[in-house]
Structures are given as C-alpha cells and as structure tokens.
C-alpha cells in the first residue's frame, strides 16, 4: 500500500499534512496563505482561503499533466492555383476545430490560466489512423465534411491537416488560485464551504472530479470539467436550491448532501455518469424537531451528521444507491471517519467501522507532533538506557540512549472524565469528507461527555448488509452514536502515566515550542479532510502511539541518536541474547531429540485427464499420504488409482518433486495441474478435477511442496530462464523456469498479470489493477498452504480485477428490444461468447480467495464503443458490435462488470504511485560488458504515458524516479532491446522507434513513425539483441526485416505465424510465444508455451516451433535467459522430445 496523506487546518489557518508512513504533521510547502477549510483527494486538495477565494493544490508527480490543443487547416482545390485557403461561402473556416463550426486560428488559442505553459510550438500531426501520412500531413476528401483518406485521388476537391500543440500544468506543490470565467480576479460569489468527490461515480471517466461549493449567500455552485488533465476546471455553474445552504458534502460515488439554515438536510438526486450535477433536491428532516443538522459528511451510502445538540448521528441510505467500498483508485475497501474534538481540538479517528458495525467502536486520538517541533526536541535525563534492560549500559559516543519506539502505549478515546471528539468527522470512504468546528467548541468536558460529541466531519459509508426496499430520503433512519464508554482502570505500567482529565494534559508537543502554542500544548485543529488518506486495519500508522517511559512533558520527543550509538546498542543486545541462549540450552544438549513418526492419509474421488489416447476425463480414486521418517523429515506421495481395460492400475507422484501447482479455471471442471521437472519435459502435467470448488481448494491446500533446499540455493541471485503467468487460473501463479538440465518450472508466490526480467536479477510485475511490483529476492508465498517459502522478503500483495457478463436483447416489432430471443439465440445473460449462461445472481468470484468489492455496474469501455446506456448494436449474434443504432441492427448487448479483490503474499514490493500498463527491462547478452550504468527500464502508464525509470540497478531494482517521455498519443506497449533499441506501439496500432537512446541519454531524442503491416493494427512489440517481433490484434506474428546498425528502423514486416497471443524475444534473439491450437500438443488448448527453433544469426526468423507446457498461459518472459546451451547437450537431455513441426500453429 503506497503512502497516503491526511490533510488538516489549524486554528491559525495553516495547512498541514500527515503521511501514513510518517509520525509528524508537515506544514504545506506553500504556506503563504491562511485557509478556513480544505477538501482532499489522492492527487490534489481544494481549499477556501481566508479571503474567501478558492485554491487548488496539485501534488507533484514524475508524470506531467498535459493537455493537447488541436486546430485544423482546411483548403479547397482551385482550377487555377490548386489547393488554397480560398473557400466557398458555404464551406467551413480556413482554420477551425474538428467539426469546422468554430473559428480556431493558431494565434487565437490561448492558455486558459497563468497556471499553464506551452511545451512547444504548433506542429503538424503526420499520423492518420495509425498510418503515417505524406509529408505535410494532408488528408483528402471529396467535400466538407466527408471521409478523409491519406491518398490524393482525382476527385479530391478538399483537404485538411491537423495542427497540435501541448500545454503543461506548471502550478504543482503550490496553491493555485481558481480563476473565474467572467472575472479572473474574482469569484462569482464568495464561498464559505467546499467539497470534492465523485471520483468513483459508476464508470465515470478516470480522473474526473465533482467539486461543489457553497457561497456566503447560501447558493450552491458546481465546478465544470474538473479532471486529472484539467485540475482547475473551466467555470462555475449555479444550481437552484429550496433554501439557503450552510454546508455541503460530496461522497466518492453519487451521494451529495447539504445542510440548511433551518437544520434540515438536502439530498441531490439524479447524479450519474452523464449528469454529474444531478437533477433535483430532496429534503430530509433532522432526527429531532429541536435538534437540527449542523454538519453532514457522506461516504458511499452512509451519512454521518452532527446535530445542534453536539450529538453525532449516522444514517443509512438503504438500497437507494449502488455503491462499492473501493477507495483511492481501488486500493482498499475501507471505512474511515475522522473528527475534531470540541474542547481539545485534537484530531480523532473512529476505530472499528465495518460493514456490520457502521457506527464503529471507539474514538482514537492522533498524537503526532508537527515536523517543525522536531528541531526543538532534546534529550531527557529521566530516560532509561536501552542497555539497562539487560543489566548494563550502552557505551557510545554520547550519554543519551535510544528509546524503543516499539514499547509504546496507545492513546485511546478518553474516558467519561475526559473530553470527547466533537467536530469534523471525515470519512475515508468519503475522503472528501471534511470538517469544521461548531458552536459547541467552548463547552465543558462534562457537557461534552454527556451529550456525546464529535461535532463535525465526514462519515464513511458502507453497503447495507441486509438489503431491503429503498426508503425515500425523508424516511432515512438515523442512529445516535453513543460516545460514552466504561471508565478504564488506571494503568500503572512502566509508562507511569498519571490519570488525566483531558487529552491536552498528556503534553503531546515537545519542549521549546514557539508561539502560538505553549510548551505542553498540542496543535489546535479547525478542519480535517481524509479524502487522500487510507488507513488499513492490518497496517495502522504510527499516529496513535506515544513512547513509553517518558514524562508527560516529553512524550513526543524525537531523540537525537547517532549511528554509532545505535550500532553499539544493537551489538551489545545481540551479544547478551547469544550468551543467554547458550546458557539456557547448555543443560539440555545431552537430551535425545524427539522425533514424531506418524502417517497421515487423505482419500477421495477426483477426475484425471488420462495419459493415454483418447485423452479424456476419467473417474479415479486418489490418496494423499504424508509420513514422517526416523530422521524427522516429512514426505508426501499422491497415489492415483484408475482402471484401464478392466485392469486396476495406479500412478504416484512424490510431492517433493512438484515444482508448480496451478489451479486452472474450466467451464465445467474445477481442476488443477501438478508440474514436476520430468512432467514438464514431457509436456504433460498431471491434471486433476474435483466435483466442487471447495473440494478442489481442500486438495490444493493440503498439498505440500518442500523443495526449500533447491529454492534456498537459488535464493535471490539472478533470475534466469522464463517467467509465465496463467490466464485461466483462479489465482494465476508466477512461474520461474530453472536453467538446470532441460529446464523445469518453479512456482513463485504472488498474483500478477505480467512479468518482465533481465539477467541481473531485476524483475518487475504488473497486476490486473495496473499496480507495479518489484521482485525482492525471496520465493514462495501465495494463497495455498504447504508451499515452500523463504522466511524473509515475503510481503502482502493484493490485486483487483473485473468479472464481466453480458446482457443480450433482440428487437421485437411490437415492444422493441426485449430479453426474449429466438430459440437459436444465445443466453440473454451470458459470457462474451454467449455459450455459457451467466447471471448476476449466479456469477461468483473466480475462487474462494477472491471477494467482491463492488456491485455490478455497466462497463462503457468495451471495444467498439457504446451509447449513453452502455449498449452495443449488431445485425445478429455473433457479429461486429458498434456503439450507435442503425436500421439494420436487430440485436444489442451491454457489458456488466463487478470488481473482486485477492489478498495474497509473495516476494514482491509495490512501486508507487504510478499505475502501469506495460514494462520492459533491457536484456543483457552474455557478451555484453557491464559499464556501470543504471539498467534501462521503460514503461507505459495506464493513461498511455511513456516513462523511463532512473536509478535501476541490481542493488536497487525499484529505481529512484520516473522520467516522462513526450508522445503525441497514448501508447499501449513498449520494449527495449539489448542495444538500447526502444520500440513502442500506440493505442491506434501504429509502431514507433525511439532514436538516440544511450546510457548517457536514457530518454533519447525523438520518435520515428514505423508503418504497420498492411491492414493490421499492432498490439505488442518485443525486441531482442538484433530482432524485432510484433503482434497484431488478429494474432499474427510479424518479424521486422532490414534492421542494421546504420538503419535501426528496418525496412518491412514479414509474417511468421498466426494464432499467437504473446511474444517475448530474449537477449540471444530467442523467441518464445503463447499460442493457441498448437499441432502436436497433447491437447489443442489455448495458451500453450512454444519457442522458435533454428534461430541463428544467418536465419534470425528460425524455421519451426517446439511446444512446451500448455493450457491457459497468458504471459511469458524469456528476456532474463542469457545462457547459451550447447545444442548437443540439449538433445541428449530431451531424447523423448517430440519432433519439431514447421507449422505448429494452425490457421
């Protein structure tokens, strides 16, 4: 989980941030302004300053915010002078937009605000539909408007070309004033409240935000066109309200609430993807007639409110919304509520908020000090030396001793005699949730306790666990949050804290604090916003603990410990522990070691994909026997009992020989495959199937693979061989092919969509949610028990992906499109092929390890486009679908998606914060000399930006920072060769080559547009030492001919094979692919691993294919294999290998 930030404003208007990885509040870099309140998201923060002006703070990133401006130059042919700018009166402007309706001269396109700057001057776009145009970029047509082509014809009477220019947002890490469209210096109306949300509106364009504001006159305003690429938006729109609004809160989805002066609440209805501003208001009465609502904060479908009697209320929007708990770009399903105390002005976190306990359990105070206070920290003579706990003192260069931060005491919610949080409650579910102090700030501690306060804030909302009929907003149930708790027994621990009556008496700030805070005062907060913050229950930040053994006045001191003192302290403790261990074990060395000798057997019935022809599933009895020998070593054997021609036989597998266990998704079977080195060489794993998914998981979890010895020897040195991942697997594993002998597969923990490696041990992976991960050098982990695993470098890993089903309809002359189809039609709810029935209620997560984290929603991003409701139209099933209805379209479909999440473990660490789509690491040939330069790594972000990673090395595989490489369009695939040749494929299927890439110039200088194969759109490229292979959308594999050192772009594409899903070219130009329908394989299944044979310098394309393991593989990487294997030895090791076939991939 990457670091996230909590935003807060103190009583003096200064904005602070608190990182989940830190322990101190840091003052905002641009501290010139004083703010009243802020509302934060993951990448930016909006705020209202004391001058009632609105500002936005955009966090810095390695990827710039770029916006492309376009203008079209139009010309008509003249019999006298040829093409010229003299147009007919009925023609469009000579310089216009793409529609031709708006006049758009190049000198008339200005920057929208001072916060932008131009990257370059105007230039002609010479790319048209993925193909390069003639010099000049002109496209031709018969007339305006019409279909344009690259080639000039005899009847081409008009032509146009596109001019483009990029502008870059420059005001990052500073507060940028939001200009007004009418008057850039003034707002349409002074604002006093603001809320940001809407980033999780169902299938909303990624990066779009909803910014709502309330003026001093009680009017509600909406900021138009706010998105990641346009962080300041375009203009303010006024919305009518039934009364004067005081405060507003916007959730991450489509929930918007506001409060009126009279104490009532307003709910905005009709907010959706096509109408983010909504359509109407509904009035919600307060919980009591005398206690009106003073402050609201909303999450997904839960509303937290503070009434005028300083009580916190919670209301559930039961069934009225379709919501999910995926916050912060689908990173976690969290329920977070933040608040500020009425009296002590401390920030509180509501602990224990879950889907089943939406009110939570207790308030937990944040005791972090400010970063500026660290300079005032000093040592305390009352501190105990760490060495004293072991009967001695640590001798170092100074007298002060380090304090153990692990020995800490948590600051829970104060007891009945202490002040309670009584202000803004901010919800992590609604990271937009913000809070402010209320009129009850001056109440006494006794009054606060009696009424139970947190006074204001935002509440996290969760899905209702007991769905029912949706109530109207006026019938919304309110729940009083009782903040009174049993008084805790005073603790007389080593900390020695005296019983206090208020949180401020704990002395949360260090000595030497400058005004306006006193010596023992903590910061006084006025507002908090958790929209950009994620706090996971399994990894709580160090905000809620104070060091034990300190006096109240120095609880948050940051002691100055020198490295010499730390080293001496650790060395002394280690020596003392070693001596104690020897002393305690000395009396027991003559005892004989106890060894348990036992046998454990599990039996059952499964199905086996038989070895003999005809290959089919046969019913078998299986027995898993595990025994412990005299030496204490454990071993397991799997017996398979079957019948052939009425003769009983059995097969057995020693589980210590199993190197990979792959659960495979099948339409009708719950099956899994066992791989051993011998079975891998035979291209024939053991495939077993269970009757139910639960039975399969029981067998998979009970299997053991104790190959820790070999894995330890491999350790984390280099990463040789191949990498693969399974696409049909419920929990796709990562496999490593060992270079021993003919090679075999070894399973690695984790869950990834793709992996990339080089021979120096640098390995990167990308999950289904586009999260980047780097290999740590460990092994093992995963969802299944019994897999051998290293004791270090194993970390928690999560992944999120979507499950898709399709709703199909046929047109009826009477009723229009209905769910009643013809008898020969597909299921009205089906998968993409239409062969399997898939309904919302019957569709389950891929396996038991997955859990739903969202409800069903319409997927508008399917290929071919959709209409506003997500429908795609066609003449019949199956056919080519398009997004607009025509007279010949008699069927339609739309895609529904639901997100599920997997939590597993493996030797992977996350590389935040940029989500990636593709990654490529330079492969090193065995003859290459390592010059000491950093390892070249290129990547494509999920938005299509091209990035170059700096500082990557074998010792630092994660690198240090990203370098953005400008492009004219979003890219989809990238690959770097052994000689720094960088090739890429754009989303429109066109190919590009990056020129002048060297170790001293890692980003190169310019892109060269390479024509694609005729009538084909490329989707992937892979570059080796001298070879370049590309894959198109139809599964055709192409080889680039004519590449020489003097002409690295090559001359033409030559077709190699078809039915290929993925290609990987290694540092020795070896070619491995994932292919479908491979001849000679034991099963004509999709996703078979094959490699190209006969690849030689004089014959770089090779002459045939040799297949490997098959069945559902999705990705492979051979770029770490830089070992030249003797041809004779390879043949001796595989005498039984099937003969090569020159046409292994069927048409």
UniProtKB/TrEMBL annotation:
Keywords: Autophagy, Cytoplasmic vesicle, Lipid-binding, Lysosome, Membrane, Repeat. Residues 395-478, 699-722, 1122-1147 are annotated as: Disordered. It comes from the Eukaryota. Tethering factor involved in autophagy. Involved in autophagosome maturation by promoting the autophagosome fusion with lysosomes: acts by associating with both the ATG5-ATG12 conjugate and phosphatidylinositol-3-phosphate (PtdIns(3)P) present at the surface of autophagosomes. Also involved in selective autophagy against bacterial pathogens, by being required for phagophore/preautophagosomal structure biogenesis and maturation. InterPro entries: Beta-propeller_rpt_TECPR, Peroxin/Ferlin, TECPR1-like_DysF, Tectonin_beta-prop. One of its GO terms (molecular function) is phosphatidylinositol-3-phosphate binding. The gene is TECPR1. It is found in: Cytoplasmic vesicle, Autophagosome membrane; Lysosome membrane. GO terms for cellular component: autophagosome membrane; cytoplasmic vesicle; lysosomal membrane; nucleoplasm. Residues 64-125, 137-170, 798-859, 870-903 form the Peroxin/Ferlin domain. The lineage of its organism: Eukaryota, Metazoa, Chordata, Craniata, Vertebrata. Its main location: membrane. GO terms for biological process: autophagosome maturation; regulation of autophagosome maturation. Pfam families: Hyd_WA, Pex24p, Tectonin. Belongs to the TECPR1 family. Interacts with ATG5; the interaction is direct. Interacts with WIPI2. Interacts with the ATG5-ATG12 conjugate, the interaction is however mutually exclusive with ATG16, since it does not interact with ATG12-ATG5-ATG16 complex. This is Tectonin beta-propeller repeat-containing protein 1.
